[in-house]
Each structure stands twice: as C-alpha cells, then as structure tokens.
Amino acid sequence: MDLRHLRTFVAVAELGTVSKAALQLRTAQPALSRQINDLERELGLTLFDRIGRRLFLTGAGEQLLGSCRSLLGSVNALGEQAQLLRHGNTGVLKVAASPVQVETVFSTFLHQYAKRYPGVQVQLIEAIGANTLTMIERGEIHLGVSLLQSLQPDDRHFGIYPVPPVELMAACHPSFPLQSGATIDISRLAAHPLLLLDSGFIVRKTFDTVCRLERLKLNILFESRAPHNLLAFAEAGLGVAVIPSVVQTHRYGLRLARITHERQPLREPLAVVWDKRRELPPYVREFCVTLAEHMRQIASVTRQSIAKPSGANKARRPVRLRAKR
Description:
This protein has helices spanning 3-15, 18-25, 29-43, 59-86, 99-116, 130-138, 202-213, 227-235, 284-307; strands spanning 48-51, 54-57, 90-97, 119-126, 143-147, 158-172, 183-185, 194-197, 220-224, 240-244, 255-261, 264-265, 267-275.
C-alpha cells in the first residue's frame, strides 16, 4: 500500500475537493484523482461519493479515515525518531562497569549525562574483567569500562577510548604510624597490617605481582570484596587499606598516599571498550568524552585528598585491640 495514496485520501476527506488537496500537497489534480482511484481499487471499496464538485465520504470511507490518520501519524513519528537517532539525541545505551565504578563514578555521572542527552536511556550493568568483554562480543552491551589488562594482544576488534588510569592508594588513620608524605613505596607497606581487596580484583593482582617480584612478605589482616569495609577498618586504626583511586573516601577521616614502586605510581590503564565490528549509536562518542572528563574530576578530588585527611569531621580515635588475658 502506497503511503502517498493514504495521504491523498486524508487530505481530500478533510478538504472536500481534489483541487484544494492538490494545492496543499503540491501535486497536480489528475495525479491525485488517479491515486484515489488506485486506492479504491486496491481496497475494493468506494471511499467517496461524488456530488457536484465536492467529494463526500462513504460509510466505509468514514470508518477508514481514523485508521489512516493513526497510521500516518505513526509513520511521521517514526521519521522524527529516525531523524533524532541520526543526530544522536535519543536511544538506549547499555554499559557495563565494575561494582566499584558503579558506586563511585556512575552514581554521580549519569544525571550529568542525562542533562545533556535527556533522550538517551543508559542501562547500567555490573560486570568485571573478562565478563565485560564477553558481553560486548555477544552484543549484550554497547560499552564496557574495563582495565586494559583484561584485553588480550589479539583482541584487535575491540575499540578503546582511554579514561584516567586506576592508581593504587594507601589509606590509613592520620595517627597510624605510616611513613609521611604524598607517596609511599610498596616495600614500606608490607610490614603493616594490610586491608586488601580479594584476589578477584585486577588491582589486587597487580599489587600481589609487584610484591612477589620484590619478594615481600605481606602482613594481611583482612580481605574483602567491599572497599568500604576496608576503609572502615582503616579509619578505626586497624591497618592500611589498599584501594583503587576511584573509591570515594571523603566520608572517612583518613590520610591517603599513592603507592609507588621504584618511584613510579602503581597504576592500571583503564578504558571504555566496544566492538569495532558493530555499528554504535552516534551519541556513544560523546558519552566516552563526558565520562573521561568526569573521571578526571574525581581524580582531581583524590589528589586534593592526599594533601590532607579526608572527611568533613575530625578523624575518629583509632581502635586499640587488646589481647585477651
């Protein structure tokens, strides 16, 4: 069924004459008359009664008019939606990120992005490491925020947009006997009670790898999958928490220091990753750019926190554990 025929039918029905409809549609009258005849022949119905110079809807024509208007309205809406999609203003964007990134980065980022792209619905999914890459390959998500260590050398079909790297930070109570300064070498951490993320985190694997290279014997007090458990223990003075730099620490009274090795910060490159073999919505690039800028702002806040203990209130007194008699 030709949509032009339906538009002609609706115009003639509303205006009453072919001549008026021809002016509105900017089409010659004979062409419109042929279109009406073709539509009637296709439907097997008489749509108009011709009385003098005017056309009046038949009973069948009146019943079809509403359906035709609805159909043409849907077609117009489809065209408008396609135009918005071409300009990158609307659609669905599926993104995977680690639980830590969800809490510390996306909890404060999504509303900022929504202000710029109110027509884009971001669907956030928790995933880490190889799981993120698998979801991208399967087409289950558009983007994944992943440490580049997760990528294999032959994964050339993945596109990447770098964002600020994840650094390893040491967090402790201000009164804890940890070397002062904005940085601390990993060799000076080993003897202290350590509060570590469990071995499933890539940043933990990086920490362990460097310790093995340096043949350091670690004094591990506590391991957890929840970074804030480590921060709570550190605030209580129980040890030194080793955390990624994206973790928010402003709610705690802590002193922060970058962990270094051979005078270089311990860090892991981080990027937004996608499958280059698939066509992505045009608003994806702006999402990557805006996310990278937001993460740089978070990194800036972290750098400011290194200069002084974080937390709006004074640091709590550390807990002193006493051995049972």
